[in-house]
Design goal:
membrane, five-stranded mixed sheet, 9 strands, transmembrane, Dolichyl-phosphate-mannose-protein mannosyltransferase, alpha/beta, about 5% strand, transmembrane helix, 20 helices
Length: about 575
C-alpha cells in the first residue's frame, strides 16, 4: 500500500511526523533555563512599562526598585515573549508556543533549503533528512530559547540565498530578486535580535550573494547591495539600541565572565592558546548527543575518547572525500557556476566555519571564566556545546547530502559507513531521550522540575498568587532558604528575590511608602531567631500553604517607620 504512494506525499508525511516528534519531545520535557527565565523576567517588566529590564532592590527606598536594562541578550526574545504573555494564561504555555513555532520554522526553512536539490538526491532523501532530525538527539543539543529561534531565522535566510543562487533563467528574467534578497536580510537581522553571535552569520548572507553576483551573475549585484544596505541599517539601529537603551552589548563590548577574583572590566586580553584544548568535539557532537553517559561503562573516559576520535576521523574523511569529488565533478562538466549540491555545501561550510571561527577568536582573546556551573569550573566559548548549534546542523546536513546523492560522490563502502553512522545515532537516540519522551508525552506538561504527584496544583496556586498581588509593580519576595521552583515563579512574575541575610545586612530598612513583602518560609525547618523576630515585628500573616513544594508563603508590610532588628 505504502509503495504505491508517490514520494512527494511520503516526504511530506515524513516532514509532518518530524515536526510532531520534536513537538512531542518539547511537550514531554519543556525547558526553562536560567537564560530564558531572565529574558522572560525582562518581558514582564516590559509589559509593566519599565522597558526590557530586570528589577533590583533599591536599599535607599524599597518602594522605588531599580530597573536595570537587560544587556546579556538582544531584546528580540523579550519582545516576542511580552506579546505571548498578553495572550497566554501561563508562562510555560507561552514558552512552549515559542518553542513549537521555532521548531516548525526551522524545519520549514530546511524543507525549502533542500527544495532546489530534489532532482540531485534520492527520491526519499527529504524523508530521511526529517526523520533523522525528528528522532535524533543530535545535532539539536539543548535546542531551546534564543538558540532555536535564531537558528530558525538564519536557516530561513539561508534558504532564500540558495533560492536566489539556483533560480532558473526564466525566473531570473521575470524577477530581479529584490524581494527575496531583502527578506533574506530581514531574517538574518531577526537572528541578530535573538543572539549576538549571529551578527557575522547575518552578514554572511548578503555578502555571499554579492560575491557570487560579482563573479558569475551580474543581475544579482543590485539586489545583493540592497540587502547588504538594509542589513547594515538594521544592525546599526540595534547597536544604537544596545548603546543608548541597554547600556552595552555583552559579548561585544565586554567579556562574559563570572570571575571570583576581579570584575569582568578588568579581564586581561591576550592570546590564550591553551583554551583550544577545551574545544568541543564538533564532528562527533553533530551526530551523538553530549547526554550520552559513558561513566557507567568500565573505563568510560577512555571509551568516550576512542568514540570521539573514531567518529571525528570518519566524518572528516567522508566530508573531505565527498566534497573533493563534488568539486571534481563540477570541473569535469566545464561549469564555472557551481552545481546546486556544491552550492549548498559551500553555504553550510561557510556557516560552520564562521560559527566555529567566532568562538575560537573569542576564546583565544579572553581569559576563561571561573564558574561553578560548568564541568571543571573553567568555561570558555569553544567549550560550550550549544554554541556550535549552526555547525552541528551544517555538518549533519552535508553528510546526509553526500550519502543520499543521486550521482554518488562516495564509494559504496564509504556510503555504507555513513549510513551506519546515521543509524547508530538514531539507535542511541531511541534508547535514551526518545524513550523518555514516549514515557512522558501522555502526562500533563509541566516544568521539568515539577515531578512529584500533586505538585502541579501547588504550582498553579503559587503562580496565581504571584500574578495577582499588587499588580503592576514588583513585590519584594523574601526567603530564609533556597527553593528553586518558588524562585522561578517569583522571578517570572517580575518580583524581587531577597535573602534573609541581605534583609538583615541593610538596616534600618528604608522606604518612602508601605511596601508589600511575601516571605517564603520552609515549614519543615524551624526559622532562626532573627527570622522569627523579623516576621513578628512586621506582623507577618499566612498567605498560602504549598505542602508539595515544601513552602509556606507569608505576607507582611514594610512601613516607612519600620526598622529591621539586628540578628
Amino acid at each position: 500500500m505504502i509503495s504505491k504512494l508517490p514520494w512527494n506525499l511520503l516526504n511530506r508525511l515524513a516532514f509532518g511526523l518530524a515536526v510532531l516528534l520534536r513537538w512531542a519531545h518539547e511537550l514531554a520535557m519543556p525547558q526553562l533555563t536560567r537564560d530564558m527565565q531572565t529574558q522572560t523576567e525582562s518581558a514582564v517588566n516590559l509589559l509593566r512599562g519599565h522597558g526590557v529590564s530586570l528589577a533590583r532592590v533599591n536599599w535607599q527606598d524599597l518602594s522605588q526598585p531599580v530597573f536595570e536594562p537587560l544587556n546579556l541578550w538582544p531584546p528580540g526574545y523579550a519582545w516576542l515573549m511580552a506579546c505571548l504573555l498578553q495572550l497566554s494564561p501561563s508562562v510555560l504555555l507561552a514558552t512552549q508556543i515559542m518553542h513549537w513555532a521555532g521548531l516548525l520554522g526551522l524545519l520549514l526553512a530546511w524543507w525549502y533549503l533542500l527544495k532546489p536539490l530534489r532532482g540531485t538526491l534520492a527520491p526519499w532523501a527529504p524523508a530521511a533528512f526529517f526523520l533523522f532530525w525528528g528522532l535524533s538527539n543530535a545535532p539539536f543539543h539543548l535546542l531551546f530559547g534564543t538558540d532555536l529561534l535564531a537558528l530558525a531565522l538564519y536557516s530561513g535566510g539561508l534558504a532564500l540565498l540558495l533560492h536566489l543562487l539556483t533560480r532558473p533563467a526564466a525566473a531570473r528574467r521575470k524577477s530581479g530578486g529584490y524581494a527575496a534578497a531583502l527578506l533574506m536580510s530581514g531574517l538574518g537581522f531577526g537572528a541578530c535580535l535573538m543572539r549576538f553571535a549571529y551578527y557575522p552569520l547575518a552578514f554572511f548572507l548578503p555578502l555571499t550573494l554579492l560575491i557570487f553576483g560579482w563573479r558569475w551573475r551580474p543581475a544579482l549585484r543590485r539586489p545583493a547591495l540592497a540587502a547588504l544596505g538594509l542589513l547594515t541599517l538594521l544592525v546599526g539601529g540595534l547597536l544604537v539600541y544596545q548603546a543608548r537603551v541597554a547600556g552595552d552589548a555583552y559579548y561585544i563590548t565586554q567579556f562574559y565572565t563570572q570571575l571570583t577574583t576581579e570584575p569582568s572590566t578588568r579581564a586581561t586580553l591576550g592570546l590564550y592558546w591553551h583554551h583550544l584544548l577545551q574545544l568541543d568535539p564538533v564532528l562527533y557532537h553533530s551526530f551523538f548527543s553530549n547526554e550520552l553517559d559513558y561513566s557507567r561503562l568500565p573505563q568510560g573516559a577512555v571509551v568516550r575518547t576512542v568514540a570521539v576520535v573514531a567518529v571525528s576521523v570518519l566524518v572528516a574523511g567522508l566530508l573531505s572525500l565527498g566534497l573533493t569529488r563534488e568539486v571534481g565533478a563540477a570541473r569535469r562538466r566545464g561549469r564555472l557556476w557551481p552545481t546546486r549540491r556544491l552550492l549548498l555545501h559551500l553555504l553550510l561550510l561557510g556557516t560552520a566555519g564562521l560559527c566555529a571561527g567566532l568562538l575560537v577568536a573569542l576564546s583565544l582573546r579572553y581569559p576563561a571564566a571561573l564558574v561553578g556551573w560548568f564541568a571543571g569550573g573553567v568555561w570558555t566559548y569553544v567549550a560550550d556545546t550549544r554554541y556550535f548549534l549552526p555547525a552541528f546542523l551544517s555538518v549533519s546536513a552535508m553528510l546526509l547530502v553526500l550519502v543520499l546523492a543521486r550521482s554518488p560522490r562516495l564509494p559504496v563502502g564509504l556510503r555504507g559507513l555513513g549510513l551506519g553512522l546515521l543509524g547508530a545515532s538514531l539507535l542511541l537516540s531511541l534508547v535514551t531521550r526518545d524513550r523518555r519522551t514516549a514515557q512522558l508525552v501522555v502526562q500533563q506538561p509541566n516544568f521539568s522540575m515539577d515531578q512529584r504527584p500533586g505538585q502541579p496544583a501547588d504550582v498553579r496556586r503559587l503562580d496565581s498568587l504571584l500574578r495577582t498581588v499588587q499588580p503592576g509593580a514588583p513585590v519584594l519576595f523574601g526567603r530564609n532558604y533556597y527553593n528553586k521552583r518558588v524562585e522561578i515563579a517569583a522571578r517570572l512574575a517580575g518580583h524581587i528575590i531577597l535573602d534573609a541575610d541581605s534583609l538583615f545586612a541593610h538596616q534600618p530598612l528604608r522606604t518612602s511608602r508601605p511596601v508589600l513583602m511575601l516571605f517564603d518560609l520552609n515549614p519543615a525547618t524551624p526559622a532562626n531567631p532573627a527570622v522569627t523576630e523579623f516576621l513578628r515585628r512586621h506582623h507577618a500573616q499566612p498567605r498560602l500553604g504549598l505542602p508539595a513544594l515544601g513552602a509556606q508563603i507569608l505576607s507582611l508590610q514594610i512601613r516607612p517607620d519600620s526598622t529591621a532588628v539586628t540578628p
